[in-house]
Amino acid sequence: MRTLLVQAPVQTGEAVVEGDEAHHARAVLRLKVGDEVRVADGAGRAGLAVVSGIGREALCLEVTAVEELAPDRAGLITVAVAAPKGDRLADLVRGLTELGVGTIQLLQTERGERQPGNAERLRRIAAEALKQCRRSHLPEILPSCSITALAASGAVLRVLDRTGAPPRTGAPAPVTLVVGPEGGLTVAELAELAAAGAVAMRLAGPILRIETAALAAAAVWAAAWESAP
User: Fold this and answer.
1) Residue 188 Cα distances to 2, 109, 160, 168, angstroms
2) Torsion angle, alpha carbons of 142, 147, 150, 156, to 10
3) 178-213 tens-digit pLDDT
4) What is the overall mean pLDDT for the chain?
5) From CA 219, how far away is CA 128, in angstroms rounded?
6) Residue 104: what pLDDT?
7) Are 31 and 54 in contact (CB under 8 A)?
8) Which of 34, 44, 80, 197 has the greatest CB tally within 10 Å of its CB?
9) Which residues pair with 5 in a beta bridge?
10) Rounded CA gap, 147 and 51, in Å?
11) How does strand 45-54 pair with strand 36-40?
């Protein structure tokens, strides 16, 4: 069953889908009056609906049932990451959404080679991933911040670094996984994070690409917490 993203909070009764989502439903999914769809609002509510009307600019739905979905434990994870080059940032956002992370924090670093992409485009990519994998919660995508701001945030920080110890996920609790740029974080940046209580952890011996490291780390924590008591 196809999933459409609707404005939060989704509730029973009539709902109107407009803009790009309505165009996608009409032109790509080719939905017709009477078709059943799954609706989600990205904030934890999802339901079933029937297409009741199709216009040039909007799609009308009759939502027949709604359920509140608890966030996965992976929602406690923030991934603070230097944006990779090219379309790899889109792949990164898509993969982290599929894994269910709660927040994606883009980072400004000394060796970073690119400024983060268009935030609205990244949110659209996350929305498409949410629909594809039937997640219930969209990640929050935050504007880029400096290492100094991250260190001062008070978050529990776990920095991916080859000199660190093997990962210890601990009990489910808010955590920020820090992934540096190609070439790694500088000695000064690592020292600043360590002074804020950050713990270095190693995923693998080989050097990993930014998106590989971010997705691997998120998967390690998500998988460990999924089976935690």
Assistant:
1) 49, 11, 15, 24
2) 120
3) 999 988 999 999 999 999 999 999 987 778 899 999
4) 92
5) 20
6) 97
7) yes
8) 80
9) 40
10) 47
11) antiparallel
Kindly report whether the peptide bond that precedes residue 166 is cis, defined as omega within 30 degrees of 0.
Answer: no
Tell me the C-alpha distance between 126 and 124, whole Å. 5
Q: Give the dihedral sign, CA 113/117/123/127.
A: negative
Task: Give mean pLDDT, residues 85-94.
Answer: 91
Instruction: Look up residue 102 and give its two tokens.
Output: 């709660």
Tell me how many helices (H) and strands (E) the chain has: 6, 11
Confidence bin at 51 (pLDDT 50/70/90): very high
At residue 227, the pLDDT reads 82
Give the pLDDT band (50/70/90) at residue 156: very high
Q: Which domains does the chain have, with CATH numbers?
A: 3-68 (2.40.240.20), 73-226 (3.40.1280.10)
CA distance 190 to 188: 5
Q: What is the pTM of this model?
A: 0.89
Regarding beta strands 77-82 and 175-179, do their DSSP bridges make them parallel or antiparallel, or are they unpaired?
parallel
pLDDT at 163: 86
